């Protein structure tokens, strides 16, 4: 494969000095996909012709000294549910015949306005509804570090693409952990912004779009272009003129909470807990005020509220004739698991929805006491590649979904590996609209975490 820089800064330098052109970067991306993706199954559709035309235009701008900015010519992948005009969308399931998108999502518009080269769409599980890379449409996506391991989900292809270096920017979506969990299981950096920070065209409670990258700074560069208000999304936040790439922070005196269990009775794998403790010690040794956050939810709202409500949403999608052509072609293990929600009465579903409010209040009350809160991203390590991960996740603490319900920003960054090499994600969360704080704390940790917690990307070449 052609050697090519994998970060935005390195590509900008190469484009600027003429040692590399955007067309070269695109061809390197296509070569890498061709070499690896028959095994890893991260890619759905490659848009090679339009990508080459976009890269040609970018190459001319760089040669003329008129690039549009740091994303000009940068290869990008988008999760399959992020619409790009002309590309098919299938909800990740064989139950739906792919439909060609007629217009771009706001995310794609912002990327293309910045000159980014959208190369391909990435795979996801059926209905983007499980924390796994298993799909009746795409097959089984496989972990970047070991093909026997699960990718996590639902932005499974995006996280694998980031880890394998397909593109510096890989867009995922997240309604309960779908950016952060696969990022954790593939050692990538995944950022879930505040609800409404990145406008999308399929707005729903807790759903966000955000970047999955190898570095925090690449995610920050991306957010500078994605976080632009758009009337197509009623939840779109007003412009706050955030200086996204201003990542310097003085960690001394920062109030850092560390949580190992959102609710009593559920925690994480001891190997993960140990890695989070080591990460917390890095902050404490540098002068941060670190304290343990006891379980902050008074009851298990996620099991009784948010997750039943989300499962009912999936069940409704499965019965939407505008989405599904033949449900018998979907992953039947997933259909069976989701179908159990049909036994709940309308009263029980309303009670589930009503419990989301107190869950949000208790979450933001906790976040408001700290500048940032550390926790595991996932309570479990990556399981077998072929598993839907439904049973594996069922017994562990859920560290991600409260921040979707509350609409607060959170990220996952690698903080270590198990003895057999499975990546471990550190989740960094902060209060409402404190997106930049999350990125700053993550960037500081990225610099100070040490080699034992840092991915060796050369091992994946």
UniProtKB/TrEMBL annotation:
Start and end residues of each Amidase domain: 25-439
Molecular-function GO terms, alphabetical: catalytic activity
Pfam families: Amidase (PF01425)
Protein name in the entry: Amidase
Originating species: Rhodococcus opacus
